[in-house]
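User: Hey, quick favor. My workstation is busy. Could you predict this chain's structure for me?
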Amino acid sequence: MKRNISKHHAPEAIEAYYQRYLAEAMKSPSSPVLLEIANEVDLSPALLARLVVERFLQEREGAAFSKQMLNNMLREPSLIPDLLLAHHVAQCTINDCCYGPLVDCIKHAIGQEHEVLLRDKLQEKNLSFLDENQLRAKGYDKTPDIILEVPIAVEGHVVHWIESKASFGDDHSHRTYLNEQFWSYWNRFGPGLVIYWYGFIAELDCQRDRGILLKDCFPSDIITLGPKTSQS
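Assistant: No problem, here it is.
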């Protein structure tokens, strides 16, 4: 899908989807029109809903609508002025297991659970640390989930920070994280550890000598590079 997604965003494709939706919704308003179109063209229902709502807003609001307005309507379809479109968008959101605001909420909740698990593991080891919220309160804008106040060594590698990822580390996502997050953390805080709780492609763990270590669980062979202190 990632390779073919661009064709669905072509202006002529969006217009074709929109006009087809209008025609079929008028002919059969009680049918799950958007969902059926998404399945037929092999596109995520939530992504198709986004394209159609964006086109709807262009027609209704012109250049006046904002991305925030679009996102709000996708998160809460009842905000869409067209009640029939709102109903069809809600159907797409509920029936999409990979994308959309409902899936985002589930992913966020799972991510939060694993961040709590990481903090619990650190506290069990009596390791002093600052979490993301504490770091932002200190004025940091882009931070890992954990900064260790006293660095540790894992498998012979020094670790100053830990990032929790409640996902599988595939090539595409890991490359994106490297460019948008991990190297930034490395530049600011030094070498660190990324935990992909659902595993990762083994070949991706190739940056250890440069300062980024990958694990699929909390490490058991930790060496503290300084006195242990309890978190206050």
